[in-house]
Amino acid sequence: MPATLVGLIVALVATLAGSNFKGVNPVILVTNVAAILIVCVGALGATMASFELKATTGVFKAILKATLGKDPKPGIETINTLVDFARKARSEGLLALESEMAQLDDPFMKRGLQLAIDGSDPDAVAQVMKTDIKAMKVRHKVAADWCQAYGIFAPTFGIIGAVIGLIATLGKLDKPEQLGHGIAGAFVATFLGVFLANGVMLPLANRMKRLSAQEAQAREMVMEGVLAIQGGQNPRVIEETLMSYLSPSEAGTMRENA
Amino acid sequence: MPATLVGLIVALVATLAGSNFKGVNPVILVTNVAAILIVCVGALGATMASFELKATTGVFKAILKATLGKDPKPGIETINTLVDFARKARSEGLLALESEMAQLDDPFMKRGLQLAIDGSDPDAVAQVMKTDIKAMKVRHKVAADWCQAYGIFAPTFGIIGAVIGLIATLGKLDKPEQLGHGIAGAFVATFLGVFLANGVMLPLANRMKRLSAQEAQAREMVMEGVLAIQGGQNPRVIEETLMSYLSPSEAGTMRENA
Amino acid sequence: MPATLVGLIVALVATLAGSNFKGVNPVILVTNVAAILIVCVGALGATMASFELKATTGVFKAILKATLGKDPKPGIETINTLVDFARKARSEGLLALESEMAQLDDPFMKRGLQLAIDGSDPDAVAQVMKTDIKAMKVRHKVAADWCQAYGIFAPTFGIIGAVIGLIATLGKLDKPEQLGHGIAGAFVATFLGVFLANGVMLPLANRMKRLSAQEAQAREMVMEGVLAIQGGQNPRVIEETLMSYLSPSEAGTMRENA
Amino acid sequence: MPATLVGLIVALVATLAGSNFKGVNPVILVTNVAAILIVCVGALGATMASFELKATTGVFKAILKATLGKDPKPGIETINTLVDFARKARSEGLLALESEMAQLDDPFMKRGLQLAIDGSDPDAVAQVMKTDIKAMKVRHKVAADWCQAYGIFAPTFGIIGAVIGLIATLGKLDKPEQLGHGIAGAFVATFLGVFLANGVMLPLANRMKRLSAQEAQAREMVMEGVLAIQGGQNPRVIEETLMSYLSPSEAGTMRENA
Amino acid sequence: MPATLVGLIVALVATLAGSNFKGVNPVILVTNVAAILIVCVGALGATMASFELKATTGVFKAILKATLGKDPKPGIETINTLVDFARKARSEGLLALESEMAQLDDPFMKRGLQLAIDGSDPDAVAQVMKTDIKAMKVRHKVAADWCQAYGIFAPTFGIIGAVIGLIATLGKLDKPEQLGHGIAGAFVATFLGVFLANGVMLPLANRMKRLSAQEAQAREMVMEGVLAIQGGQNPRVIEETLMSYLSPSEAGTMRENA
């Protein structure tokens, strides 16, 4: 369920509706060219400078995934698959899993099992799978860090925009009828910076970090399962151990169905 | 004792009473529609976007538990149970504990002891119990993180509301009789954001984190006890070790009763 | 030497004296009922809600200890005791220490030595002593965390008080003769919040953390000594190792006296 | 691709263009002598005082590298080299790599392989290579810390400059025609401090940290390869393990070319 | 080279010169008795209360060392000494180093080698040296923490001073000719607090932390050398390992001279 997309829309609509209530036309909050240049483009430049080019070009894909992507596969299904494999491996030997490889659509589990089937050393299998998880976390971290950096820079460029707006206005203290509008204009930059950070970029960064942690945990469960299968452990014990990764309600569902 | 509920009420009543003293009708602080939209709903959207949907739907249960839930069972009772089991296991063997399993109402201790009775490898028992504790911490962390995220977003949406209010007001510098009321209205958003964070959400997040740490510590004590029972350690040494988990006053009470 | 008590008094007196210099009667800074309600009581509520009740009721004892308590026993004395015990244990055996137990007034050292004398496994002695130190740190941390939480909440309730004060004042822009006094009153809440945090609660939290670290280090030294005695190490080597815990000046004093 | 240089220019141009839009001549933002003295030179002094002299004199080289330097060598190339060496070492023995040393232009890989060829103990090779990576990180950290310290000091000196500017202006409240210009001048220091931090120094510090992490990761991959070659591991397994360091797209490219 | 002293002077002179440019007599910034009482003395009280008395009385010595002290001995010299000792120990035995002890002026290296010569267990030597490094870090940390605490308290007492100044001024809104001067006076406290923190105390704290890390690293190098000598390692390998602690330029110099 796209909680992130819904949340971002709620934050935007609530803010603009509140603005309308106050009698401030929402359009003027998002169409001030100077504010957009300083806050949106300025903070983009600072963020871009903080990373290698690939991070900036790749962040849009990550934002799409965070807002529109599907949730990871439920853990119960994965546990069932692993326990089935454990039973088969125990009764017919590890090589019997070879025939299952073709239907398997989780590349991470596939890679680990294939290494086990090929007779690699258990330590080597663990090493490859751990490096894989660590490398995945590093890749995910780039996009989350990018959004967070933008979310940190945006309010500071909002201050820069407000300060410049105030400097522009304070030069005209002798025309008080323009003063109010000038200060109001200066505050639009503040609004843009704070909203871009807290209504868009920081929620995205939070969500990306959570998604990454969840995918890493799912893979750790798979790794623990694959290593247990290779070690020829009791399928019942494997199931018991892997179920610790489930939430109590999921575990309850699973026990009932068992 | 529901310290959290009492504390939240104290913070709210003290703030509204102080407001009344200043001559500000508390009602206007919490009924400004624009401020509520921007601060409460806007920050809710940003928080919701930071998490998977389940975190948002599940947070109310966690808030209820933090405000109304009972304190964890005292450690002395748990230690006595474990030491009794240790004595029985030492004199009659681990299998003798099978008969105790039915009355045991702590599912965590039950699971660990059952694995030990079933003859699982000590390392496997430790592994399952550790994974269990770790998974519990991860689950608890979601709700605490949710409240903390709300507590971080709320003041920033308070700033957004204030800035929008100021923009609305500054356009009317030529009507000074409205100016004061306009700025006062803008500050209501600031009030809401800061109070929602520091008077509600951050205390809740703090409390949830402490509760989680206490439950984890209680389970670590149980784990240490179960593993010591399985290892056939001296019940006297087990008691001595587990008592380190008690506060000095609890340990004193226990020694007196011994 | 009660550096904490002296420091707190210095901070308070300097602030009130400076206030007097500016022509602000210090009495008005600390007798504003609305500010006291919002800042002192409001922040107390938020802090109370962050912890279990026992943390709030027990914090006063910890504050008294931090402000009035004696400094921990100097390390040199403890080292001398341990080295004496090591010599005796080496020449007459561990059991010979039994007779020393009665005069020993450090319950932590006593507990460790008693376990060693009783013939416990060295790993078990280390385990009990480590758990003890860890549990002590956890207990100390509660009071320090409580003061720090108060110190973080206080300035935010100071902002709440100031905002409410400004709302009260801005409704009377048409009575400029009251404006100045109104804003001044609003700032009293800011003063209270910032001073309560930085002049009282955060210094207390810092001090509690340092006291806890010092006590933990003292106990680690005792633990290292007890384990070395149990291991039958050379008293000279034990002395050399334990002296690493002393400051260079203390170690110099000790070497001169040797 | 010099993303950092482009990003810094984008931030600067967008800010100055936005300033122009507001009617503030960009020249006055960067030519206020008092603001430059207080903010740029004052923060430079504070940063310089935070480090040994070598850190300050060496930071310009690091800034040039971060803005103009080339990206690290792609990982695929390095993996291919290592796998070729592994094949040769396996069929002809480690000594056969001696002849390859001359063409090798990566001093880190060269040093590790030479130690392996010379018959050093595998633990010693690992130790030297790890110390090397750790020392490189420490060296890189100095420049990143320097830029970050400047980025933290600059806005605070911006506040100092603004406060001094306000003090200068407020002494002339009786000449309202100068008031606006005075306050505007005071805000130039704020602008300089915030921009110098967020538009220059903090992006540079971020970039330096990322470059360092990337170089460290590249070296860790080389270390893992060298140790595997010395251990006589299967070249196929080495390739598989090292590929975990690649991004999925790079790994895809590599698999296609295989 | 006293980079810290130079940096502190640069920050002070640049700030006062910039102040002069603005037309603010630098003398009034540093001679406001109320501001000095509240900011300098108030923050001193809060800092003092945060530590045991010895930390406050000992901090001046640490400040002198950070501003005037000499840089640590270059690493090359230490490596040469250690490698010479390693050669001698290898050809003539560890006891042959006894005669070198008298000229050795590094007490840390002396202590480690003496233990090795006396035939202590290698683990015991490592233990003593590690405890020594750890204890040194703890001692250094006190002074750095003290300066940092002052640097954190100072701006908050600057806010307290400004708020009190504003309260004093706002009571006289009816005498506008005094208003400007009153607000200007209030801001002097802000200036003092921010400058004392960012122009003095935080740079000192940074510098102390770096000095401590450098001394710790130098000692770790010595420890690694001493343990390698005791272990009878090849002097050439010892040199190679220890050179990883040098910067590339130092290592280059060393290789050229070899």
Structure description:
- Five copies of one chain form a homopentamer.
- Chain A is elongated and about 90 Å long.
- Chain A starts with a helix and ends with a helix.
- Chain A has ten helices and no strands.
- Chain A has 258 residues and is mostly helical.
- Chains A and D meet through helix 3, helix 4 and helix 7 of A and helix 1, helix 8 and helix 9 of D.
Low-confidence stretches of chain A: none
Query: Helical stretch count of chain A?
Result: 10
**How many angstroms does the end-to-end distance of chain A come to?**
27 Å
Shape of chain A: elongated
Mean residue pLDDT of chain A: 89
- As a percent range, the share of helical residues of chain A equals over 70%
Quaternary structure of the protein:
homopentamer
Largest sheet of chain A: none
Helix/strand-derived class of chain A? Answer: mainly alpha
Report the strand count of chain A: 0
Largest two-chain interface: A-D, 51 and 57 residues
Overall radius of gyration of chain A: 26 Å
Order of helices and strands of chain A: HHHHHHHHHH
Q: Provide the β-strand percentage band of chain A.
A: under 5%
